């Protein structure tokens, strides 16, 4: 179907771009440059919109779209983990994650938990005011029957 092709094509372009950004960031570190010296990627201000679109595809019915979306969201996590951007849209990203945590998909919510875990490690102080909003959906997950899902929630806590 044409819509599947367009989503997959868009994900492939985003994957290629983010892969380049991650490699450039790693290259700057290897060259002895500080991460803070690296420019902020042009789409950083749109990260929450990009993340929302990628997370929507993580639970797609088409296997290739799911696989590529999972790879892209992992690359985005890696890029954020390595970043020293002067401005990071943490509130917007957390809002996307909170909305996605309300969905039923275990795959989607597990991806969100991975993001929350990474954000708490990377941006501990800026994340503190948002913990109250995050705890309720995480505690709901603790009641879930799937053990790996519960373990992912416990890792966040």
Plain-language structure description:
This protein has helices at residues 2-30, 47-58, 63-82, 90-101, 106-122, 124-127, 131-141, 147-156. It has 157 residues and is mainly alpha-helical.
Highlighted features:
157 residues, 73% helix, globular
Seen as an oligomer or otherwise, the chain set is single chain
Unreliable segments of 5+ consecutive residues:
none
Strand content: under 5%
What is the N-to-C succession of helices and strands?
A: HHHHHHHH
Count up the helices: 8
Mean pLDDT across residues: 83
Layout of secondary structure:
Blueprint (H helix, E strand, L loop, with lengths): L1 H29 L16 H12 L4 H20 L7 H12 L4 H17 L1 H4 L3 H11 L5 H10 L1
Helix pairs in contact: 1-3, 2-3, 2-4, 3-5, 4-5, 5-8
Short description:
Helices cover 73% and strands 0% of the residues.
């Amino acid at each position: 179907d044409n819509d599947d092709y367009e989503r997959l094509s868009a994900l492939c372009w985003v994957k290629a771009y983010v892969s380049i950004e991650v490699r450039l960031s790693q290259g700057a570190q290897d060259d002895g440059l500080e991460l803070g010296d690296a420019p902020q990627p042009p789409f950083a201000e749109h990260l929450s919109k990009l993340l929302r679109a990628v997370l929507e595809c993580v639970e797609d019915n088409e296997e290739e779209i799911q696989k590529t979306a999972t790879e892209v969201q992992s690359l985005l996590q890696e890029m954020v983990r390595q970043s020293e951007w002067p401005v990071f849209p943490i509130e917007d990203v957390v809002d996307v994650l909170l909305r996605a945590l309300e969905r039923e998909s275990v795959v989607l919510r597990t991806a969100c938990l991975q993001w929350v875990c990474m954000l708490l490690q990377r941006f501990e102080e800026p994340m503190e005011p948002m913990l109250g909003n995050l705890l309720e959906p995480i505690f709901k997950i603790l009641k879930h029957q799937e053990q790996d899902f519960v373990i992912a929630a416990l890792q966040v806590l």
